[in-house]
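Input/output pair, single chain:
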Amino acid sequence: MKMGWTGLESAGKSQLMAVRAYDLYKRNVRWIKKRKRMGLEFIPRTMAFDTPMSQWFIDKVESWGMSYVHFRDLSDIMPLSQVDIFINEINKFFPQRGSDPLTREQAEFLSQGAKDGVDIYFCSQDFSQAHKQFRFLVNEMYHVIKLCGSKRPIASAPPVKWIWGVVIYYPLDPGSFKGDNFSMQIKGIPRIYFINKQDTELYDTLYKVKGTKPPPIKMVEQEYIYLNEDGSEKKRVKRWAKK
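Output:
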């Protein structure tokens, strides 16, 4: 499963993803309770975030034997299995770099991750900046618009007395993407979410995601054979090329 939210800055994308994380936490707890009642073993799930969650959320997750991970680089999460991964800016972890493909390890992580219980939830202001190999594998996509509400709290302004907002988000067909967010076709009924103070306390709303380090360039030695006009070998040259 790969699910994403796209829209302008402060539209409510990260908020919807945080609420989704809390819903998944409750789903995981229900599963653990059921297995315990039946006297059966269970594999505790991991929840990994690039944006720090609140301490009370972390305590809830760990109190049920699940693992909480705050990651800064792709190398931190690619070895994981049985995990829900939440990425606040997907283009900073899987950026579009011209025609360069993803590394073999990254491509396998995305295309084969579901077999290891890996689900990815992400936000993106501009879906076109995410790598096309990632875009092709997205199952669900939503376009988020904040209709009205309080402003985001900032340190250099008076505190927001009442946190509220009304957000509408449209289900999109990620397969219809043709270059920009607005090219994706709406494929269902729009939904409404009401922002409230409790939900905003799920995570650090002011945290800036720096993104992953670029993958190392792997080089291989290749041999080039130059021929004469009659087809006979003229010379051999060894050169290094990107793998």
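The mean pLDDT is 85. The chain has one domain: 2-213.
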